[in-house]
Amino acid sequence: NTYENLLVERRDGVAIVTIDRPKALNALNAATLAELSKAIVAIAEDTSVQVVIFTGSGEKAFVAGADITEMQSMSAAEARNWGKFGQRVFAAIEALPQPVIAAVNGFALGGGCELAMACDIRIAAENARFGQPESSLGITPGFGGSQRLPRLVGTGRAKELLFTADVVDAAEGFRIGLVNKVVPVGRALEEALAMAEKIASRSPVAVGYCKAAANEGMNVDLGSAIAYEAELFGLCFAAPDQKEGMSAFVEKRKPVYRTR
Ligand code: HXC
């Protein structure tokens, strides 16, 4: 492991990235964000990685936010650059060619909630707590939270969370669509791995295109999004996975896909 504040491990085709700064509840300081940035580039280039999981060290926190002690004395210009840096890193997570699952154990606040939202899917332990408490600190979210939260839960609920700084538990997160699945304490990573294994058994080409279609489609009008879907659908038929998937169906066997 070449990182100080991250653990990056592999279980078969799954890369597990653990934010490991337990003394500050895994808060993202500049050093940790820089390491995340590096790790993401390495994972994007690694064609043996089928699925990525982000989690936090220990049961208490996923990530308790950006590091408040580092931000305390920032100038406006420094804060803008810090925000842009985090936005770039989280955009790179969102744009990873592989599907990304957040296994959320404990607090996912501020930058931690933003990190979870940059992932494709969120699995939450019952002790998970989500929120964007920035308005209580005199700031707005800065790593994409003011934009990804309304896209995930709708503008009304997002604005309520942003204005009140309320923290919601896993069950409420599930109810409003922030969380895909709630699991017992201590089980988030195992459940994420089980889902990763299922995803890894599907066509990597198809899964990658599904991710691209959903991501792109959220940023453009419906007509352009639908046109993009047609392009990707067509491209599937130029890749071997469509032949394998449909032959397997007709031959009543399980498909075997090449890895990425
Ligand atoms: C720095 C943090 C931290 C953070 C926790 N710690 N969160 N340090 N930045 N975001 C540190 C504490 O200072 C403490 O250090 C140690 O972790 C343990 O935390 P405690 O507060 O003692 O634990 P507890 O009483 O159980 O409370 C847990 C908590 C609380 C409710 C999660 O720590 C908390 O409210 N943290 C801040 C959450 C927050 O506001 N996050 C959003 C940040 S703004 P010591 O040394 O005292 O033991 C943000 C903006 C993102 O994320 C965009 C930027 C551009």
Automatic annotation (TrEMBL):
One of its GO terms (molecular function) is hydro-lyase activity. This is Crotonase. Gene3D superfamilies: 2-enoyl-CoA Hydratase, Chain A, domain 1, Lyase 2-enoyl-coa Hydratase, Chain A, domain 2. Pfam families: ECH_1. Signal peptide: none annotated. It comes from the Bacteria. Keywords: Lyase. The keyword Ligase does not apply. Belongs to the enoyl-CoA hydratase/isomerase family. The keyword Lyase applies. GO terms for biological process: fatty acid beta-oxidation. SUPFAM superfamilies: ClpP/crotonase (SSF52096).
